[in-house]
Design brief:
The chain is of the alpha/beta class. The chain has 20 helices and 17 strands. It is 43% helix and 14% strand. A hairpin with a 6-residue loop joins strand 4 and strand 5. Strands 3-4-5-2-1-6-7-8-9 form a 9-stranded mixed sheet, sandwiched between helices. The chain has a 6-stranded parallel sheet with strand order 14-11-10-15-16-17, sandwiched between helices. It has a two-stranded antiparallel ribbon with strand order 12-13. Helix 5 crosses helix 8 and helix 15 packs across helix 19.
Length: 573
């Protein structure tokens, strides 16, 4: 007879990305919140950094009546915080904490951390101090809440995300040992650094020593807090089998549970709303492209994109542009392609000449619009502070990309956060995602990969790789589907996306050219699909996303809670 799992009465989750949209962890937390809120309403509490003092945070609505007496008590303990609701589905409770006052205690905090857990903060630089002070503040917040409201009769879990919050988990183990701790690494510091520095990661993973590589790559302190937290918490987790292998080799620790990242389909519009928003998104993308390039691209244009953090090799931006360049010079392509590169760079604001061109473009009815003269640098929507140092810009120059009218492939670089107020598109990322026909995420280092999951959730077929956690999961799902066609049944330039909705390309340390050719062939093959085949691909993409909903993945979290609570009980006997 199986043992009944222990579930927490309260869950606290700490992350740098709570009410702070900077990366994939934001999506993990914000899409999962509704599922946990339904199970344990207002007993899931998120803790994030308060960057917005004196300014309005559109993601956070303060509620000064909520736990007002505790706020007074926290102030007496020198903890400055704001309590409110995260403006996402489920509207969970959020505590935003001001961590700046704790910098005065930094050396003492680091000293205790070294004596108690052998965390080396001696080599700290950059964002290490800021993240650590937030993490310490988050630990103090939970300690104060526990002492004010709770006691040992309540089962409490504290989940820390990434190395930035490890210090808080260790603080609680030391000061409130009855709280069960979970540490989730979404990507190891060393793995990301090895890949980002151009070193082969996968073929030599077994031979790398994490501590040695941390010293070589100058990330000793980040690696140290990550490694020691993983070894000391009640439950250590990661997000995919890809990263689990890294943890074993680089952190010398096997994760207790793999927590795959799900998605909440409430983010996706339905029915007529979906159709109308897709039409609006396509119109906006084509308007910007035409105003910039002096072209007259119409709705038959195939719009593709890659997006995410500006990690040149890790996210596969390099091989994406290489594949586009090969597609451009391939005679088999007989359809117009507009390819977007949506990666935030060091941009200096929207181009005024493009804004003026857009205003002029929109004055004319659709039927009277004509191609005009292209603007200078007709491939970028925003100014850059140092364009001479930008990899995308320099690569496009090296390839001789001019987006001339006769070119079958035109490339549009969007170097800003699509937050709805970028000055050019003025639409959110998800809104523009609706307008795409195909996405390409040829990652070299991708522990999970939210961008391809988001793509298929919005019915946009995508290309990813076997080095992404999502890619491996998608392959498992396709293998389990008896109707999936084996790759060998396809020809050299036929599209595998027509029935699967996602194509997972094999990628290794050394097959860059093969990956570029495969992406080229997939783009060309997809461009040749009939409308019926495209619709089949879109339905297949959506069907795959349905399998990644949080209601399917939340059970992995219940396993992690059970492990942590049992270890905490044993530890406190």
């Amino acid at each position: 007879m199986s043992q009944v799992k222990l579930l927490p009465d309260y869950i606290f989750e700490s992350s740098w990305e709570v009410c702070n949209k900077v990366g994939g962890i934001y999506t993990v937390l914000s899409t999962r919140a509704k599922t946990l809120q339904e199970v344990m309403p207002d007993r899931i509490v998120f803790i994030g950094p308060d960057f917005w003092q004196g300014k309005e945070n559109p993601l956070f609505i303060e509620d000064k009546q909520l736990w007002a007496d505790w706020r007074i008590q926290a102030a007496k303990e020198a903890i400055s915080l704001r309590i409110g609701r995260w403006q996402i589905p489920g509207k969970p409770i959020v505590v935003l904490v001001d961590f700046q006052p704790f910098f005065a205690q930094k050396n003492d905090i680091y000293g205790v951390l070294w004596v108690k857990y052998q965390v080396d903060s001696l080599h700290a630089y950059g964002d290490y101090d800021e993240a650590s002070m937030f993490s310490y503040a988050a630990g103090r917040v939970v300690e104060s809440f526990y002492n004010h409201f709770l006691d040992d009769s309540k089962r409490v879990v504290y989940q820390a995300h990434e190395w930035m919050t490890g210090l808080g988990a260790l603080y609680l183990m030391n000061h409130v040992p009855s709280i069960a701790t979970i540490f989730t690494t979404h990507a190891t510091t060393i793995g990301r650094s090895i890949a980002g520095n151009g070193k082969p990661l996968y073929d030599y993973l077994f031979a790398y020593n994490g501590n040695q590589m941390a010293e070589e790559l100058n990330v000793q302190s980040k690696h140290s807090i990550e490694r020691q937290t993983a070894h000391h918490v009640d439950c250590f987790t990661t997000v995919s089998d890809v990263t689990a292998r890294e943890c074993v080799e680089l952190l010398d620790k096997q994760p207790d549970v793999v927590l795959p990242n799900g998605f909440e389909m409430d983010f996706v519009p339905k029915g007529v709303t979906f159709v109308n928003r897709r039409r609006k998104a396509r119109q906006r993308i084509l308007e910007v492209a035409n105003a910039l390039m002096g072209t007259a691209l119409d709705d038959d244009t195939m719009i593709i994109a890659t997006s995410g953090r500006y990690e040149w090799k890790n996210k596969g931006i390099d091989v994406y542009l290489e594949a586009l360049n090969r597609t451009l010079h391939d005679e088999r392509l007989d359809r117009q392609v507009l390819a977007l590169v949506e990666v935030p760079a060091w941009q200096a604001g929207p181009r005024k000449d493009l804004q003026d061109s857009l205003a002029a473009w929109r004055k004319h009815p659709t039927s009277k619009r004509q191609a005009s003269s292209p603007l200078p640098e007709p491939f970028i929507t925003h100014h850059l502070h140092e364009p001479g140092c930008d990899m995308v810009t320099q690569t496009l120059h090296r390839f001789g990309i001019t987006n001339r009218e006769s070119s079958r492939v035109k490339i549009l670089f969007v170097p800003c956060y699509l937050d709805g107020a970028d000055g050019i598109f003025n639409m959110h990322y998800y809104e523009l995602l609706l307008g795409l026909d195909l996405t390409v995420y040829p990652s070299y280092y991708e522990p999970w990969g939210y961008t391809p999951l988001e793509s298929v959730a919005f019915k946009v077929p995508c290309i990813t790789t076997t080095l992404a956690g999502f890619g491996l999961w998608a392959n498992e799902m396709k293998a389990a589907d008896q109707s999936a066609k084996p790759q060998s049944s396809k020809g050299a330039c036929e599209c595998y996306l027509d029935t699967d909705g996602v194509e997972v390309i094999h990628r290794s340390d050394y097959n860059y050219d093969e990956v570029a050719d495969r992406i080229r062939d997939e783009i060309i093959g997809f461009s040749q699909l009939s409308a019926k085949e495209v619709e089949t691909a879109r339905k297949a993409a959506s069907a795959l996303a349905q399998k990644a909903q949080w209601r399917h993945f939340i059970s992995y979290y219940y396993t992690a809670y059970d492990i942590a609570l049992r270890h905490a009980q044993e530890r406190n006997k």
